[in-house]
Structures are given as structure tokens and as C-alpha cells.
Amino acid sequence: GAGVSQTPSNKVTEKGKYVELRCDPISGHTALYWYRQSLGQGPEFLIYFQGTGAADDSGLPNDRFFAVRPEGSVSTLKIQRTERGDSAMYLCASSLGGAVVTQYFGPGTRLTVL
Amino acid sequence: AQSVTQLDSQVPVFEEAPVELRCNYSSSVSVYLFWYVQYPNQGLQLLLKYLSGSTLVESINGFEAEFNKSQTSFHLRKPSVHISDTAEYFCAVTSIKAAGNKLTFGGGTRVLVKP
């Protein structure tokens, strides 16, 4: 079936603006993850959902970042008052959850804050 | 908490030569280990994983990695690389017992295969 999809693929915004990044996981996957990858670095964990609830949001850098998954499928990462330092690739991954730990990644959204 | 160190940020290698990408991790608990590959302008793809059992795991395209618990390493090898193996490779770990199994990644190793 289809893999993880993310929209938009690229987002350019101005400092101070609000952005939303969308993730559509693999059908049937109950676990969903957001990671951020800065240029030249490995991905860093942001938040993990099991079903509709955020089970671990310890990686969110500050309260400008928020994510939801209201129906247990699609998730939206929301960033308020964007700063230039938020520029990065935002990656979404999903897994079946439970004892199945393998995560499958989407192509990412490249966010550029001018 | 875990950490992952990939000792080489870039590895140039000639086509048909062998390559080894080093990965060392630090963790106070038992871990699962993964290698992901990121081809130019593409997302992360799972290359191989160690969950349990044999410490030597293989991928379908000729890569293999060996889990060494005493040395806390999970080095990736391929005996003969192709031009198409040019990519960035990421080693990752997750705690066996942690709910959710969030991944901790290394900084990546960029492999450039030259003809």
C-alpha cells in the first residue's frame, strides 16, 4: 500500500508567521512520530502519538511547537511565531505500534523561515 | 537516555571496493538498532535492523551489520559497493523497554562512490 505522505514538500515562510505541516501515516499504523533534521545532522525526535494522544512530547523544543492527531490517523505539526532557527526538514514516521518497533518515514517537509 | 556516534561524517570509496561505516552507541538499557539510508532528495529508508537473535543481520542489497554488545557497536559493511550506493547512512537506536520506541540517530555518514 501507500507509504507515509507529507505535505507540503516545501514551505517557505517569513519570521513570525504560523505554519502547519501535515503527515498521513501508513493505513493501520497506530503509532506516529515527528522528527526534525537540521542540515548536516541526524533526525531528532519531537513527539510521538499512540492513537489520538501524544504519548511523549519530550522532544518539542518550546511551546511554539504543537502537534495534533484528532482521529488517530493524520497528524498536523503546528509552529507558531516561526523563527529562522526553525528552518529544517521535518520528518514524519509511522509504525504498527505495540511490539512492532520498525518506523517507516515519509519524504519530509523542508521548512525555510526567511 | 541513549546516544549514537557515527565516527565518519564522509566516506569516499571507489566502485567495487568494500566499505565499512562505524556506529557506536551509549545506553544504560538494552536497545534495538537500525540503519537507515537517505538517497539524494529522498526520505529515510530502513536498510536493516537488529531486534534479537543472530547478531549478524543482512539487507537485500548486500549490506550487513553486526551487533557487538561488549563494544556497543553496530558497524555497517558492504564487500563491494555500486555507484547507486551513494547516499547518507544513519545509525539509530531505541530502548527495548521504552514505550513508543522513539529513535535516537547518529549524525550520519555520507558515502560517495566514485567510478
> If you average the pLDDT of chain A, what whole number results?
94
How much of the residues of chain A is beta strand, in percent? over 45%
Number of strands of chain A: 11
- Largest protein-protein interface: A-B, 26 and 25 residues
The H/E string of chain A reads: EEEEEEEEEEE
Unreliably modeled segments of chain A:
none
Radius of gyration of chain B: 14 Å
Q: Helical region count of chain B?
A: 0
Structural class of chain A: mainly beta
Give me the count of strands of chain B: 12
Task: Describe the protein.
The complex is a heterodimer of chains A (about 110) and B (about 120). Chain A has strands spanning about 5, 10-15, 20-25, 30-35, 45-50, 55, 65-70, 75-80, 90-95, 105, 110-114. Chain A is mainly beta and about 110 residues long. Chain A is globular. The N and C termini of chain A lie far apart (about 35 Å). In chain B, strand 10 (about 85-95) and strand 11 (about 105) form a beta hairpin. Chain B has strands at about 1-5, 10-15, 20, 25, 30-40, 45-50, 55-60, 65-70, 75-80, 85-95, 105, 110-115. In chain B, the strands form 3 sheets. In chain B, strands 2, 5, 6, 10, 11 and 12 form a 6-stranded mixed sheet that branches. Chain B has a 4-stranded antiparallel sheet with strand order 3-9-8-7, with no helix packed on it. In chain B, strands 1-4 form a two-stranded antiparallel ribbon. Chains A and B meet through strand 4, strand 5, strand 9 and strand 10 of A and strand 5, strand 6, strand 10 and strand 11 of B.
